[in-house]
Design brief:
Blueprint (H helix, E strand, L loop, with lengths): L5 E10 L2 E11 L4 E5 L6 H9 L6 E6 L2 E3 L3 H5 L2 E4 L11 H11 L4 H14 L15 H12 L6 E5 L7 H16 L3 E6 L2 H7 L2 E6 L2 E6 L1 H8 L3 E7 L2 H12 L2 E5 L2 E6 L3 H9 L3 E7 L2 H9 L6
Parallel strand pairs: 3-8, 3-9, 6-7, 7-8
Antiparallel strand pairs: 1-2, 1-4, 4-5, 9-10, 11-13, 11-14, 12-13
């Protein structure tokens, strides 16, 4: 069997006596997109930093592209690309210069980097902005440039920490298409994201992380089928909390009331829909269950700072 591109076992990291990462274990095979989901403070970014050897674990082991981390992290990272949460491009350089200088960090000759730049600019849809300074680029352009830069060393594994946060829908969809291209080329992706639709579109497998631990793992559709009812009816309108308290338990397997909205979960929505159609003053949305429903069931609806 082929060796995993990334293998993690019993990983622990504590800060101030609190386990931010608490004994997690997983592996990623070549050609997969593995997504890590979780609320703020769940331990996602710390996990990524541990895997890259940027911080040392208190327990456990990491093997990254066949090398022990953090002991051999420097050599491991030569075969890795990273798209950080916040763009850290150099504002003093043009688009092309950002790629050229970054290539030097990997010991690549300028001639070799220059040969790769046209393909990377085409991949990022930035050919026309080759000589542009960063101040003239939109947020989506900068994000695409950061992705292109992460590919300058032709990595085996690409770490992406919330790669589409803050982008408009058009830019997000373009990034998704580019990530699908990478996967079709056999690249491996480790993705952290707050966007459930992003994980559903891209991930081969995923884990939901909360308070430093994995609380669910599997393929997106597998998790939805295992963890949640098949159908969701969201009920809006005046008097919904009172209506839900009197009727939702009878008409659905499980329900939650948040503000003026009742979320009713069921495997057969027909009786509930028939009753709602007879009532006035309440609107509803009927839809299949999705990964966001699983996420909220497992981690709760309360805000996390």
């Amino acid at each position: 069997m082929e060796r995993p591109v990334l293998a993690v076992s019993g990983l622990v990291k504590r800060y101030g006596g609190t386990a931010v990462v608490d004994g997690i274990a997983f592996s990623i095979r070549r050609g997969e997109c593995f997504a890590l989901l979780g609320p703020n403070g769940a331990g996602k970014t710390t996990t990524l930093r541990l895997c890259l050897g940027l911080v040392a674990p208190d327990a456990g082991s990491v093997e990254l592209v066949g090398r022990a981390v953090p002991a051999d992290a420097r050599r491991a990272r030569i075969r890795v690309g990273v798209v950080p949460q916040l763009d850290n491009l150099d504002p003093d350089f043009s688009v092309e210069e950002n790629l050229l200088v970054y290539g030097r960090y990997f010991g690549l000759a300028d001639r070799e980097v220059a040969a790769r730049i046209p393909g990377l600019l085409a991949f990022a849809n930035l050919e026309a902005r080759r000589d542009s300074k960063l101040a003239t680029l939109s947020g989506g352009m900068k994000r695409r440039l950061t992705l292109a830069r992460a590919l300058i060393n032709d990595p085996d594994l690409i770490f992406m920490d919330e790669p589409t946060t803050g982008l408009d829908p058009q830019a997000r969809h373009l990034i998704w298409e580019r990530l699908k291209q990478l996967l079709s080329q056999g690249k491996t992706i480790f993705l952290t994201t707050h966007f459930m639709d992003e994980a559903e579109r891209l991930a081969t497998r995923l884990a939901v992380m909360d308070r430093g631990r994995f609380i669910a793992e599997g393929a997106p559709r597998e998790l939805i089928a295992r963890e949640i009812e098949r159908e969701v009816v969201e009920v809006y309108g005046d008097g919904v909390p009172a209506w839900a308290g009197a009727n939702a338990a009878r008409l659905s397997r499980r329900f939650e009331v948040t503000g003026e909205t009742a979320f009713c979960y069921t495997d057969d929505a027909a009786p509930l829909l028939a009753e709602l159609d007879r009532l006035r003053g309440m609107r509803y949305i009927h839809r299949p269950a999705n990964l966001e429903d699983v996420f909220l069931k497992l981690t709760g609806r309360e805000m996390r700072d």
